[in-house]
Amino acid sequence: MDSPVVRKWFEQQTRGVLRPSAVLVPIMRRERELTVLLTRRADHLRAHQGQVSFPGGRSEPDDASAAATALREAWEEVGLRPEAVEICGYLDDYPTLTRFIVTPVVGLVDDVPTLRHDPAEVAEVFEVPLRLLMEPGRFERHVLTRDGLQLPFVQVRYEGQKIWGATAAMLRDLISRLEAVTV
């Protein structure tokens, strides 16, 4: 949202009311490499059907924090036990056109469990090697035209999956932070 025109349009679309939500950005420590766990949303859902996302969702009144929301949702959606996740930090909050403010919670998973997804919410669970996301040029820049405005977004493809929008932006944020500490 670096353009004042896009920012004003976004504020008009959301009417300034954003509902809190959180996603877990699970970094899985596999035997040979680190991967990032993602889901493909079920095709029968009303919103964002078939899109790639992180496990997560709307904050509930009983959730003590964004991390609590992300861990609860990851358990419900993919069977990732909260105690298996070491919270490492947070990425920048991300406002969405669907009127959510999403807090990405980064977690490291050492003891990778057998995952089971809830077919009511998730069609598929898959992992992308972190090293591939760090390859130069991996994130493609695109523009979506909506209401006459040019809205920039990034996209990355992996094994037939198209990761774009908020999820790709959060991945790009993660990668830029990792690159900053590895230089």
Automatic annotation (TrEMBL):
The keyword Manganese applies. It comes from the Bacteria. Residues 18-150 form the Nudix hydrolase domain. It holds the Pfam family NUDIX. InterPro entries: CoAse, NUDIX_hydrolase-like_dom_sf, NUDIX_hydrolase_dom, NUDIX_hydrolase_NudL_CS. Signal peptide: none annotated. Keywords: Hydrolase, Magnesium, Manganese, Metal-binding. Its cofactor is Mg(2+); Mn(2+). PANTHER family: MITOCHONDRIAL COENZYME A DIPHOSPHATASE NUDT8, NUDIX HYDROLASE. Belongs to the Nudix hydrolase family. PCD1 subfamily. This is CoA pyrophosphatase. It comes from Banduia mediterranea.
